[in-house]
TrEMBL record, chains A, B:
The lineage of its organism: Bacteria, Bacillati, Actinomycetota, Actinomycetes, Micrococcales. It comes from the Bacteria. Keywords: Metal-binding, Oxidoreductase, Zinc. InterPro entries: ADH-like_C (IPR013149), ADH-like_N (IPR013154), ADH_Zn_CS (IPR002328), ER (IPR020843), GroES-like_sf (IPR011032), NAD(P)-bd_dom_sf (IPR036291). Residues 2-333 form the Enoyl reductase (ER) domain. Its cofactor is Zn(2+). This is IMP dehydrogenase. One of its GO terms (molecular function) is zinc ion binding.
Amino acid sequence: MHAPGDVRVEDRPDPEIVEPTDAIVRLSATCICGSDLWPYRGVEDVDHTLMGHEYVGVVEEIGAEVKTLKVGDFVVGSFVISDNTCEICRAGFQSKCVHAEFVAGTIGTQAQKARIPHADGTLVATPGQPDPELIPSLLAASDVLGTGWFAAVAAEAGPGKTVAVVGDGAVGLMAVLAARELGAERIIAMSRHPRRQELARFYGATDIVEERGEEGVARIKELTNGLGAHSVIEAVGTQESFMQAVGATRGGGHLGYVGVNHDVQIPGIQLFFAGIHTLGGPAPVRRFLPELIQLIWDRKIDPGKVFDLTLPLEQAAEGYRAMDERRATKVLLTL
Amino acid sequence: MHAPGDVRVEDRPDPEIVEPTDAIVRLSATCICGSDLWPYRGVEDVDHTLMGHEYVGVVEEIGAEVKTLKVGDFVVGSFVISDNTCEICRAGFQSKCVHAEFVAGTIGTQAQKARIPHADGTLVATPGQPDPELIPSLLAASDVLGTGWFAAVAAEAGPGKTVAVVGDGAVGLMAVLAARELGAERIIAMSRHPRRQELARFYGATDIVEERGEEGVARIKELTNGLGAHSVIEAVGTQESFMQAVGATRGGGHLGYVGVNHDVQIPGIQLFFAGIHTLGGPAPVRRFLPELIQLIWDRKIDPGKVFDLTLPLEQAAEGYRAMDERRATKVLLTL
């Protein structure tokens, strides 16, 4: 991305092994993330930045110290590099690894190949070569599914719980799927977009709320005996959506937030008197990858349906436009 | 409190039973809270407000529906009224009870007697009439100990954990005590006040950090192998202290915050990239009262040492001055 709104597909040198813990992955598919729209729209700085942080593909080369992967393995990677051995990783927070590095920006996986540092700690091999029909779902695990899943875990979605999901983008939809898999009793999707409402219902939403902001909060309270939801997931990242999520959470309830906050200022006093648990940030996708890959492999979940536009990598610019204009929820780029 | 800085002890009508779930308590002791200084200093509005929300005493009269208490019982109450039967109470968040009401302001326990609504859900009787020496500790359970305990539980203090406590007021000191009781391995008290440092060490602090703000954060990181503390307790409520607490928490760690926030604006993006759990707000003291009363009764903890000035109720105004000028950590008022 040369500048906001200016996406170009260009030839670049092939990546090479630099550190002995690196792997080179030949990508099978990649995609465009909702968070890629922040720089596209000029909200985040961008200047000739390598884009893309979601990826699946085949290991083409490994460094001398890579132990768990071999050339030819099909792998899914997290959007944050992690060693998966440090104290923070062992506690399940690989996105805060002492060696954490964002794939977006410096690596960039909207590409044919990528050099992945700390390959053992970042990549997970699938049980075998996947059927082509599984590729979109495995690709979703790399970020949107992993992030939605983390949000649902952070919000402590589970049996007997009412879960409200703020945001009907790909991550919000994946959070609906995750809440259902985690056994939530009732899942309220907050969306005013007919096609996304439909997809939310497909993934397990039991209720749809179209209202936003304070009206949205009032509607959630109405549906929960005046108390608010046990579990609320924030998957947008604006001031309105964040405070809507805080307001929709019952006292003592759990808010999981994964929408990348931009210019959000949380009034401390409001959060204080809400009396809620919160957990958020870049999702430690690596924690969940083995489980998510297995669920996909066994055809128990179908996150790949979140992709509603497929284009060749060369047409990435059109993919960005389609997402920016909300003509597409999520764009898969083929190679 | 007629106005900021203007505290007067005046005769008022005796309280009477209004609802059948009420009890009238004749107070044995009361005290002044750090949070009483907010209106005293004009940070919170105050206009002829009934002050005080910490109390112990003897039940003098009960309404027809009070079941668990009888006249003559010695009781400790929470600073928030709760029915202790609603869904929120049963989940342990009595301070967000559907019948929650703050004792401060409308009831006011810097007084000889108080009408306590929802007596069954708010008051806990001690195993018998306490020795006078136990009264300060039982009074501490009503708020500062209960609040510090909640903060330590919210921060998930426990075996193997390093806990940092931001704030050396009574609540911060009680959080140190709680962290020790919960089995924390290392407890870092952030304080630059020699007498409070000493008290922090008495209650279980293993380390003292005098630096504040970003320097304080850097010092905590230095002491924790660059990672930050597992558990951080915020017991002040200013912008600097809150962000110091966020910064001192390791990725995936837990922040428990109980300092009443005033004019704190939390930058969403900073909280997001911190990747931490948070839980805070007015403490559900009622949840912990039975356990805390027993620990005090059995002489296992000595929270009463947090009172370093005792005055008769008539001299409440002098008590406020002493706390405002930091000549006293916490003032007990006798009756």
